[in-house]
Amino acid sequence: MSKTWPATSKASRNLFLFGRDLRLGDHAGLSDADRFGEVIPALVVEPRGFARLTANPRRLAYYCGAVASLARDLEARGTRLVCRRGDAIATVLRLAREARVDRVTWSAAYDARGAARGRSLQSALEEAGIRVAIVHDALAVPPDETAAARTADGGVGYRSLSAYLAAWSAQPREPFAAAPRFASHDLVSEQLPSPPQDSGEAANTDAPSETRMRAKLDAYLANAVLHYRSARNVPASGPTSHLSAALSFGVISARTVLHEVDRRARDPFLLTEERASLDDFRRSLGRRDFFLQLAWFFEDEPDAVLQQRMRGFPFARSHASLAAWREGCTGFPLVDAGMRELRATGWMHPRVRSVVASFLCFDLGVDWRVGRDAWDAELVEDDAALANGNWQWAAGVGADLAQFPRIYNPFKQARSFDPSGTYLRRWIPELANAADADILDTNAVQRRRQLALPLFEDARYPAPVLDHDSIARAFLARYAKFKSASAGSTATR
Questions:
Q1: Dist. CA 17–CA 27, nearest whole Å
Q2: Each residue of 232-248: b (16+ CB within 10 Å) or e?
Q3: What angle do CA 267, 232, 293 make, to 5 degrees?
Q4: Are 251 and 295 in contact (CB under 8 A)?
Q5: Which of 6, 101, 120, 487 is deepest in the core (most CB within 10 A)?
Q6: At what angle do helices 384-395 and 272-297 cross, to 10 degrees?
Q7: Domains plus CATH for the chain?
Q8: What are the residues facing 45 on neighbouring strands?
Q9: 384/359 Cα distance (integer angstroms)
Q10: pLDDT of residue 126
Q11: Are 185 and 82 contacting, i.e. CB atoms less than 8 angstroms apart?
């Protein structure tokens, strides 16, 4: 992180650069900037980053809606969001000079490319005599605070989820209550980013905003969160929080979410199973922080595998059934329902994500980065560091310390978590009128060939593209052989 500078008189002004922190409340960066005087809010839209957003229309619409909501909230506070387009270094330097500030603050990025851009911008500004502060905001508990518990090894990050959660749970996580004082200014601002007119996402009557996300959180914590233990596993049982996109763009703070969960857990009338659901939801927030601190402390090339011994494992970059996986036509209903839900909504149920990722990596033997990029093209949420961590975990090459990868049998998972086929039928209309056995029974392949899509008489749901059991056994044998060879190679060095 950057140097800590002493606070100055409130008469001074400093520039705050918004990024993936599109809100005003419980904001670590704004609270830090407020110590140095009035804050001029700014947004720099870089061509490369905006082009990446444009490739995913739903994500772009969400981002643009969040920016517009932020701009309205700032206007209500007596200031304007200054929007500029161009290269970050040149644009920020020019804006800092125009605003006559000697300090610029922004929130830390955790993906490798974002962190590198931040360091380059920091160097350029400091060379120009402008002070810089980069502040942790995305995590509920900053990585430096959990690492501080590891004094024996110099305060480095965690690779073990259980050890991390023990340290994470012991840290204070109070929201930032300070309301920053914004500067009135006459700086020229360009038009805010907006989706192309022909994107199909331009008209968004329910744009994401801090107020809406807080109301969504409050509604979820009132009742639905008490059933989270079931909802996170059973896709048809009830809603999960659906806050992933809001957290990834910083429309709501992870600290706020965790603080409100802790407050909900203090209800003395909760049942045992309701407390367990709150504990599970709290753990999911801790797991999110875990992957972000991994990216912070173990930064490497964006595509590097965390486990050194697994860096040479021969995952394939393609497979004859890869297109079927992308399109939701593998003949494994739970896998296909998940991919169809993703393509239709920009979101996928958490349990189903694990099964779909497992199928790609272990049944098809395809590299986890192929899956990550395929989902990146569809998901509304946008957090590269979190995506890397989750996909490496699923592929058995990341922080997971299990002896063997978790290979899920899609049929067994469907029988366990969607026994009535409600979720499967919702996303696979070809199976709408099928008997449960035709959906959940691995021996029903021949019968499934005869199932007709109700809307189109000539369409059929496909038979499975492979034999899961034999493929899983072969993959585990290959995985064990590679690990053994890798361990032997390391021992002889």
A1: 12
A2: bbbbbbeebbebbbbbb
A3: 85
A4: no
A5: 101
A6: 100
A7: 13-137 (3.40.50.620), 138-175+210-299 (1.25.40.80), 308-485 (1.10.579.10)
A8: 85
A9: 21
A10: 98
A11: yes
Residue 143 pLDDT greater than 50, yes or no: yes
What distance in Å separates the CA atoms of residue 158 and residue 143, rounded to the nearest whole number?
9
Give the Cα separation of 278 and 246 in Å (integer).
Answer: 20
One-letter identity of residue 136: H
Task: Name the amino acid, one letter, at 428.
Answer: I
Is the distance from CB of 296 to CB of 111 less than 8 angstroms? Answer: no
DSSP state at residue 183: P
Pairing of strands 452-453, 456-460: antiparallel
Q: What is the pLDDT of residue 399?
A: 85
In whole angstroms, what is the distance from residue 391 CA to residue 229 CA?
22
Give the phi and the psi of residue 257 in degrees, each rounded to 5.
Answer: -60, -50
- Residue whose structure tokens are 């979720």: 423
Rounded-to-integer distance, Cα 342 and Cα 50, Å: 22
Average pLDDT over residues 7-18: 75
Q: Is the pLDDT of residue 248 over 80?
A: yes
- What phi and psi values does residue 68 have, to the nearest 5 degrees? -60, -40
Kindly report the number of other CB atoms within 10 A of residue 285's CB atom.
22
**First vs last Cα of the chain: how many Å apart?**
35
Q: SS3 for 138?
A: coil
pTM of the model: 0.93
**Chain centroid offset of residue 363 CA:** 25
Q: What are 298-336's pLDDT values in tens digits?
A: 887 678 888 888 889 999 999 999 999 999 999 999 999
